[in-house]
Design goal:
Blueprint: E1 5-8, H1 12-20, E2 24-26, H2 32-37, E3 45-48, E4 57-59, E5 65-68, H3 73-78, H4 80-85, H5 87-94, H6 99-104, H7 107-112, H8 118-121, H9 137-140, H10 163-169, E6 173-178, E7 181-186, H11 187-190, E8 209-215, E9 223-229, E10 240-249, E11 252-261, E12 268-269, H12 271-277, H13 284-291, H14 306-323
Parallel strand pairs: 1-3, 2-3
Antiparallel strand pairs: 4-5, 5-8, 6-7, 6-8, 9-10, 10-11, 11-12
Helix pairs in contact: 5-10, 12-13, 13-14
Length: 326
């Protein structure tokens, strides 16, 4: 670990001032501290924001829910309003990490976490995300867990967050505060595909701080859930995951919100699957047809071609679980 300075702030103005001076925000530290130990991250200054007033979950006037950036994963997973309205979110949180990490990690930090690609974390390996222009060892290396969607010739690393997949499916927004004041970012625009600049992972501007994630109101009844397929049943990242929310009324699908994890360089929304479902009656045949569209545009690598079929089967299974048949 390289030397760094540390400061703790108690209000938003002080936090923004420190951010303008180049400080890196830290709350639970469950990702950043690990990366500092491995010398992947070398911040000069850490700004501890854990005392900021960003720990509330509240209803919005429009009927959605706003989750403060410093709410812990465990607190969000246990919150009655979230559990009732959006089980896809609480299930994604409960299937993440370990109980100890969920107690420490914040919602804002979770959606900011960096990839678990082994080559990114190995400072002796070439990684464009860590050192732009150095190459991507994963493309021709061991790439079983890497992305098949949203990749580029510069990076094939998957985004690791589970709850970000649920937020993406529900078309949430990220509230941020920065030197130019507050702004909101559509969740689908928050994470950036690697393209030729994989070192740029989010659309945050310098000095900006995440203050909340807001889930918009969705029509009721809404059946939602999160399915995670992994190599073992605990403390493991997804090979494939599916966040699904269905609004069925009069035995017809009125709304479908679907995203996948473990397969994309960002939380991967599936609009083609959604469009195929809306206006139709639930049936096993419909689930199969819709799931076939999930892997459109996939670019599998040498060791992860199995993810194409696994993605389709995972989406189909979750659609069947939540939607049943007419």
């Amino acid at each position: 670990m390289y030397p760094f300075s540390y400061t703790k702030v108690a209000d938003l103005d002080d936090a923004l001032a420190a951010g303008r001076r180049g400080g890196r925000y830290i709350a639970g530290g469950t990702t950043l501290v690990d990366l500092m130990r491995e010398t992947v991250e070398r911040p000069g200054t850490l700004v501890d924001i854990s005392d900021l007033p960003l720990r509330r979950i509240s209803a919005t006037p429009q009927g959605g829910l706003r989750i403060g950036a410093l709410v812990s994963m465990a607190e969000a997973a246990a919150h009655p309003a979230l559990r009732t309205a959006y089980p896809v979110v609480t299930q994604a949180l409960e299937l993440s990490a370990s109980a100890q990490l969920r107690n420490m990690a914040s919602i804002g930090g979770n959606i900011m976490q960096r990839t678990r690609c082994g080559y990114f974390r190995d400072v002796t390996a070439a990684c464009n995300k860590r050192e732009p222009g150095s190459g991507c060892t994963a493309i021709n290396g061991h790439n079983r867990t890497h992305a098949i969607l949203g990749t580029s010739d510069h990076c094939v690393a998957t985004h690791p967050s589970d709850v970000a997949v649920a937020f993406a499916a529900l078309e949430s927004t990220v509230h941020v505060l920065g030197p130019d004041g507050p702004r909101t970012i559509a969740f689908g625009d928050f994470h950036l595909r690697p393209g030729s600049t994989p070192e740029r992972e989010q659309s945050l501007r310098p000095g900006e701080l995440i203050t909340a994630v807001e889930i918009p109101a969705h029509p009721r009844p809404l059946a939602s859930g999160y399915l995670k397929v992994r190599d073992r049943q605990s403390y493991e990242f997804a090979l494939v995951s599916a966040a699904v929310a269905l609004h069925v009324r009069g035995r017809v699908i009125q709304q479908a919100k679907i995203a996948a994890g473990g397969v994309g360089t960002v939380p991967w929304k599936l609009p083609a699957v959604e469009r195929h479902l809306v206006g139709k009656r639930p049936s096993p045949q419909l689930w199969t047809e819709a799931a076939e569209l999930a892997a459109e545009g996939a670019r599998p690598l040498e060791h992860n071609g199995f993810k194409v079929d696994l993605l389709k089967r995972t989406i189909e299974r979750q659609l069947s679980t939540l939607g049943g048949t007419a």
